Amino acid sequence: MRYELMLPNQIRKAIAENWPVVLPLGVLEYHGEHMAVGMDTLAVVKTLELFEREADIVILPPFYYGAASYAVAPPEGSGSVQVGGNALAPFAEELFYSLLRIGFRDVHAIIHHQTENFAAGMPTDLAFKSAGRQAIFRFLEKERGEGWWGSQAMADYYSGHAEGANFFNWIQVHPLMPAATDGQYPFDHAGIGETSLMLALCPEAVDAGRFADNTGWYTATAPEASMELGQKGVAMLLEHLRAILSR
Ligand SMILES: [Zn+2]
Hints:
Low-confidence stretches: none
Strand content: 5-15%
Number of helices: 7
Radius of gyration: 19 Å
Distance between the termini: 16 Å
Bound molecules: zinc ion
Strand order of the largest sheet: 2-1-3-4
Structural class: alpha/beta
Number of strands: 4
């Protein structure tokens, strides 16, 4: 369900049943002359809309204003919007803290931007990961008081942890695309991989008549894009979502 359309009784049901609550996280960034600047975020939004047909999830309003950086193109006339990670982290902490206050305990942010470096982290995902940790510590301390972890009530912490119980799983950040695609799908920026994904998920975000206007190396493969390849990619993304959003 889209969070902004939910009634309080539906929110309470989602809390009681521990539905995954998912934030589509992304940027607005130049993706060549042939593709819309919202590609990275649209890919998450549209894939989640497909996933929602098969699973009970809450989809938060997407956050588009991440750290696109100006690495691909300067912003003038290109459309890239850059908000640095240091500015994002305080916002994200308040957002996550607020979601914990509401009662959600299975919160996920999903991002498709610079995720080829997800393990080490890049500015947007690092800001949201760090914010999630800060929000959880702050929330637990408010709810339980200082010394909550050292109290006798927590004596089974390590055995519980070994069984998978972990407060720090309350908020997680994931890449949209699995780390290992085993050569099954091209990972790129505005090339055949991303353009095919958009053709499958959101064809209005691609104008094939503009391929010839591209000059960047990273768009060289874009004209080879196809909806068929994109659909293969979408199937992989849905499989990945099934794994990370299973309850
Ligand atoms: Zn992209």
